[in-house]
Specification:
The protein is an alpha/beta fold. Helix content is 50%, strand content 16%. It contains 16 helices and eight strands. Strands 3-2-1-4-7-6-8-5 form an eight-stranded mixed beta sheet, sandwiched between helices. The longest helix has 24 residues. The radius of gyration is 22 Å and the shape is globular.
Length: 361
Amino acid sequence: MSHTRLLSVIVPACDAAATLPAALAAIINSGLPRDQYELIVVDDVSTDGSAEIAARYADTVVRLTGRRAGPAYGRNRGAELAKGEILGFVDADVRVKPDALSGMLMLLAGDPSLAAVTASHHSATLNNLATQYWSLLLRFGEMTQRSSGGDLGSPCALIRREAFFSAGMYDEWRFATAPLEGVELGNRLGSMGRQSVLLLDSATVALGRKNVRSLVRGMWNRSSLLARSLGYQRTREATPSDAVFTLSRSMAPIFAALCGVGFTASFVAEPNLVLEAAAVLMGAIVLNSPIYAFFARARGVAFAIAVIPLHLLMQAVSATGLCAGRILRDAVGDCVPDAATQAYAEVGVNTWPPVPRSPAR
């Protein structure tokens, strides 16, 4: 196949009308010569006009029909149509900094051994408390836990074309809705001896809004699937900056403190439950002090205090999700594709619904 572009930027979108214009405009205004890259948007059955918005900016818009298939499926379909030697995957709800894509391309060009580069999350998101908290949580993990891997799906990643296809693309059936397809792909590349890095200087800014409900739902899906499908220890070694590990690092001592207080209370005739709960809460705050200090430096002391209940809630959800995932892994095993998908896979069709690959040109 002849490739006429250096880079293909692929943006999966689903009901992203609120953020897609800014996301696509940031890519176009990134400073890259327009003839060096193509912009592909894959619309996942949107109902808000995302495809029409994408048509104003993109070279190619792929409109999926039927049931929604998820970002992994959309990225794979965009990659199959792409002509670039390097594939870029950018989320529809982030704004890349002006020098992010060019900096990532320079890093790949300067080191042929690199298979992929991931951009970091920027901590300057000005939004509601939940969104700012999530942005800072991700940034904290990236700054304190450097690794040779990363999330090769979100928010922005560049992958060499040959590495992407030799690794088997994104696992689109296991991660139809859950946000771990990029982590799993990074682990797969690492197992093949292909290196990927997180570039802190190339950052993205979140455009969408989070709320407590979406954070809880997302963390539950992320932590339970991580424990069930990827394995906690193996994934932590490959991607220690993931939010699940940022939240879980202090959970063991917090649980130990809770057990210690409970054990001590068993020897007291009339234990004071309020004092015991306060002791556990203070212990949890002290054990989380490094991240609260980071929050205070980034947004001020008032913000750090305000997010303490949310952070403790997210830790509890993460821990419960990890336990549930481990139980499911031991009881029923990993997720398996449905019978139709398995049947098509046996005859060499790896996507569902089956999509014919473009013929070589």
